[in-house]
Design goal:
The complex is a heterodimer. By secondary structure, chain A is α/β, with parallel strands linked by helices. Chain A has helices at about 15-25, 30-35, 50-55, 70-85, 95, 110-120, 170-185, 250-255, 270-280, 290-295, 300-305; strands at about 5-10, 35-40, 60-65, 70, 85-90, 130-135, 140-145, 145-150, 160-165. Chain B has six helices and five strands, in the order αβαβαβαβααβ. The radius of gyration of chain B is 20 Å and the shape is elongated. In chain B, α4 links the parallel β3 and β4. Chain B has one domain (about 10-140): Rossmann fold, CATH 3.40.50. Helices cover about 40% and strands about 15% of the residues of chain B. The chains are: A alpha/beta, B alpha/beta. Chains A and B meet through α4, α6, β6, β8 and α9 of A and α3, α4, α6 and β5 of B. β6 (about 130-135) of chain A pairs antiparallel with β5 (about 165) of chain B. The complex binds iron/sulfur cluster (SF4) (2 copies) and FE2/S2 (inorganic) cluster. One iron/sulfur cluster binds next to loops of chain A.
Chain lengths: ~325, ~170
């Protein structure tokens, strides 16, 4: 039997949803499993790091890595995977842009550790025990990975060839990506494997999207009953569609919820949050500071709203400590 | 806080976006009138304050600016009628967002300065430089470089002694 192309899946700082999306291929998973050899997929099969270390460099055709990079172990694994794989694909919002985990870049590591090991109401830790990087136990040196100071995207740690966006990516995108890999007709390095246009283009409300909205108030989804026949922005509900890349077929809007931006920006935008802030604010009706601020009160958490999936890949990347 | 020594000897860098029709002309006037203002600004001429994409502002900070100044036409005077209102709205939210990302409010400033107000260009710039000197350097690229030192690969065989994590 001729060798089938080898594929790997790996996870870092992620919730498991991306792994789930692989299983969501449903019957197509059989097509994938037939066409390729899955040589590494710790979440589903028993593979160890030593198995990967034993492989020849560059012997895996492609590895899809999901999750952001927060620990020293994830960095080591990412580098190992990079050595062993011809193609590395950042799979899902966290590997692509930092994802929800990168909202932690709003807090210094110390504050997070203090909360998680002492402050949190559900923690009982009278001895103030903290994880150690290494400790002697029965004459053995036991070590733990270090939690780094920053949550990073995959491409802030290793070279990445392609990106599959989404929280999580849709099975269709994964299937298309596998077909592209198998066809050998690879797009230019750095390509995000999803249509390079705004989500609004795929949205059923495209035609009711007003050209000149004039916001008098913003509503969060729980504050209004959303009319499922009209563009959400026209109803004052913040929908990230205009600043978000297409490819999901407007899943959230089909569920009558606004887009929260998980596919990231199109190639023409550097900073998704700043772009969305720009377009929303331009269309506020008030002209004086007080009136403007009253409308903007409807956005209590701009960082969490505009950078929900991409603080790590934004221009500023993190909160700057001690400036204020 | 940054080292007090760096702080005392440091010259803030300000990136200024000036509207062609008003503030840029005013800055020109200040020059022709030989008004002296602090040499800390790098002026970028734009056609209207409404052209200032918030991405430009973030890019300036991310590239090492200590402050960003935007100059536009007075309300009602914008050559494209609404550009300065658009800027004002973005500015209000951007200021709040930058604050929650740890950037002091005084680092971002929006001023309406008409073509005849050369004196105002001078006083605004001088005042901003003084305020930024009190705040000290923002130095985003440098602090990021420092954090990224943790990415250096440690040889695996290096045995670590007992050490607390994340001290
Ligand atoms: S703003 Fe949202 S609801 Fe409106 S067209 Fe775009 S994606 Fe659809
Ligand atoms: S609508 Fe927006 S948030 Fe929902 S899946 Fe699509 S890109 Fe992601
Ligand atoms: S033309 Fe000067 S602000 Fe618009």
């Amino acid at each position: 039997m001729p060798d089938k192309p080898k594929i790997g899946f790996y996870w870092c700082a992620s919730c498991g949803g991306c792994e789930e999306s692989v299983v969501d291929l449903a019957e197509d998973i059989i097509m994938v499993a037939d066409a390729v050899d899955i040589v590494f997929w710790p979440v589903a099969m028993d593979f160890k790091r030593s198995d990967v270390e034993a492989m020849d460099d560059g012997s895996i055709l492609a590895t899809m890595v999901n999750g952001a990079i927060r620990t020293s172990e994830q960095e080591e694994m990412a580098r190992l995977i990079r050595r062993k794989s011809k193609i590395v694909i950042a799979y899902g919002s966290c590997a692509h842009m930092g994802g929800i985990p990168s909202l932690a870049n709003e807090f210094p590591r110390q504050q997070i550790m203090d909360f998680m090991y002492e402050g949190s109401p559900s923690v009982v830790n009278p001895d103030k025990t903290r994880p150690m990087l290494s400790v002697k136990h029965n004459s053995m040196n036991v070590t733990l990975p270090e939690i780094r100071n920053l949550v990073r995207t995959l491409d802030q740690v290793i070279d990445v060839d392609y990106y599959i966006p989404g929280c999580p990516p849709t099975p269709k995108l994964l299937k298309d990506a596998v077909l592209v890999l198998l066809s050998g007709k690879l797009p230019p390095k750095g390509t995000v494997l999803s249509p390079d246009e705004a989500l609004c283009e795929q949205c059923k409300h495209k035609d009711t999207k007003p050209v000149d909205v004039s916001f008098k108030q913003f509503y969060r989804p729980h504050m209004v009953i959303i009319d499922n026949t009209k563009c959400l922005l026209s109803q004052g509900v913040i929908c990230m569609g205009p600043a978000t890349r297409a490819g999901c077929e407007a899943l959230c809007i089909q569920g009558n919820m606004p887009c929260s931006g998980c596919f990231g920006p199109t190639s023409r935008v550097k900073d998704q949050g700043a772009k969305m802030l720009s377009s929303l604010c331009s269309n506020i009706s008030a002209k004086d500071e007080e009136g403007i601020d009253a409308v903007l009160d409807g956005i209590p958490d701009p960082v969490g709203t505009f950078y929900r999936y991409g603080l790590a890949s934004s221009l500023l990347r993190k909160k700057i400590p001690e400036d204020v | 806080m940054p080292d007090s020594e760096i702080k005392n000897n440091y010259e803030p860098k300000i990136v200024a976006f000036f509207c062609n029709w008003c503030t840029y002309t005013a800055a020109d006037l200040a020059g022709v009138s030989r008004l002296k203002y602090a040499p800390n600004v790098r002026v970028i001429r734009i056609m209207c304050s409404g052209r200032v994409d918030p991405q430009f502002i973030l890019q300036a900070f991310a590239s090492g600016a200590d402050g960003v100044l935007i100059g536009g036409c007075h309300p009602g005077d914008c050559h494209y009628s609404e550009g300065n209102y658009k800027m004002l709205r973005r500015f209000r939210l951007l200021k709040r967002m930058l604050k929650s990302l740890g950037i002091a409010e005084k680092r971002l400033r929006l001023e309406w300065i008409s073509a005849s107000e050369g004196e105002k260009v001078k006083s605004v710039i001088n005042e901003m430089v003084e305020q930024l000197k009190v705040l000290g350097p923002l130095a985003i690229p440098q602090s990021l470089d420092k954090i990224n030192e943790e990415l250096k690969e440690i040889p695996e065989e290096e045995i670590r002694e007992e050490e607390p994590a994340h001290a």
